[in-house]
Amino acid sequence: MKYLVGIIILLERIAPSSGLTCCPDAWTAFMGSCYLFGHTPMTFHEAAVLCKTYEAKLVHIETSNENTFIEDQLKHLYRDSNETAWWIGLTDENVEGLWKWHDTDTLATFTDWYPGEPSTNGGGSNNEDCASIYVRESFHWNDVDCQLYKYYPICELGGTESSPEVVG
Fold it and tell me: What's the pLDDT tens digit per position in 79-110?
């Protein structure tokens, strides 16, 4: 019992006021959110629908720390593939060049575009309206056609907080 109380006290020191982020099985916690790294390639809009079925959204990467977390997870999960890419929830489908989060229509305040991105596919196409993270571009962001490509989704869900409970 002393051992259990010691662990609880240690956990309270690690996250004293904010509690611990609790996520559903197969989701990964980071800074109050939960992330699901999908295993089935799909179009951008299919990915958005998939996330919505979990009452989540395609990930909004809003800080450098969150971007680094996502990149580290992808490097660990998919280290053997150099052709892999993942959807994030950023799009300029409504107004070309105005990158907003798909589900909230708010402007992105942080971006991590690969040099030369976002682009219009050599200047001839305006169909590159959805953002992805691409291994071959050192895990930076790239804009691509939303329907032409099938990438893996990254869903984000607000985590629930819980405080360690002393029993007994």
Answer: 667 678 999 999 999 999 999 999 999 999 99
CB 112 within 8 A of CB 141: yes
pLDDT of 30 strictly over 90: yes
Does the residue 112 lie in any domain?
yes
Q: How far apart are CA 36 and CA 76, in angstroms?
A: 14
Residue 80 tokens read as: 């053997």
Domain of 121: which CATH number? 3.10.100.10
Domain of 138? 21-161
When pLDDT is averaged across residues 139-156 and rounded to a whole number, the result is: 97
DSSP structure string for 28-55: EEETTEEEEE-SS-B-HHHHHHHHHHTT
Q: How many domains does the chain have?
A: 1
In a domain, 44, yes or no: yes
Domain contains 11:
no
Residue-wise burial string across 73-83, b where 16 or more C-beta atoms lie within 10 A, e elsewhere: bbeeebeeeee
**pLDDT tens digits, one per residue of 152-166:** 999 999 876 654 444
Q: How far apart are CA 102 and CA 88, in angstroms?
A: 9
